[in-house]
Structure formats: structure tokens, C-alpha cells
Design brief:
The structure is a single chain. The chain is an all-alpha fold. It has a two-stranded antiparallel ribbon with strand order 1-2. Helix 1 runs antiparallel to helix 3 and helix 3 packs antiparallel against helix 4. The longest helix has 30 residues. It is elongated and about 45 Å long.
Amino acid sequence: MRSLRRRRLLVAISATQLMAGLAGQVLAVQRGLAFDICLVGWQGAPERIRRDSWLLGTGVSAPVTMLATQAVATARLARGQSPSAARVLGILGATMVGGYLVERDTRIALYPSGWSPAVTPAAALGLGLAIPMAGIGLRRHERGKTE
């Protein structure tokens, strides 16, 4: 029973996080918020954001390929027990946490001085939900099984 609750919780968190990621993707494309990993000086250009968003992401969302993988894993887990789908969601969540934290536009949106009525909620939800998605998805059961 505990496993069922945990699986349902992971599905709900992942689905909501996915919606935040999709909202961030749309907002970033509309506003030209290209990826900007200022820690290593790697930046996209607003005129290439549609292309870059597929593999590199945007300033406030994961790449489309990751979001698609998340959608498939979430749907698979929603249909029933799937240790591999849970693990995929955990890995994606952990990767997204790092991604959100290194993105300049996300960090700006999370500060009071950078607050935006559209971008801040998408970035905050995306990051905030990626954390438990990683934790629950990567958590092992008492008997060594993964949900």
C-alpha cells in the first residue's frame, strides 16, 4: 500500500513539474530567454531559441527531449508499477535541479528584484517540484526495490 501511495505521489509531482516545464518552455520561446549557463560562459542566442530548446533547453526550462522523456515515464508509471520509470523520473529530477540552478534567467526570476508574474511561478514550480521528483524517484524500498 505504501508503494502505491508513493507511486501516485511521484506521478502527481512529475505531471505538475512537467506542466511547469512546458509553461517555462513556452514563456522562454515567447520572450527569447535562451539558455545561459553563466557559470561556464555558455549561452544560447534568442534567435536560435526554438532550435536550441530541443537539446539544450531554455533559460527557464529543460530541453524538449527531457520533457518528452518525462512525459513517457510519467504515463508509464501512472499505468502501474515500473521501477525503471520511477528511476528515470528520479534521474531527470536530479538533472533538472542542477539545470535550473545554473540557468541565469531562472536564478534572476527567483530573486525579489527579478520577480515576473509569469516566469517566476514557472521557474519556482519547476525547480521546487524537481527536488521531490528526484528524491522519490531515486529512493529505494526497504527490500532493495525501486518504485
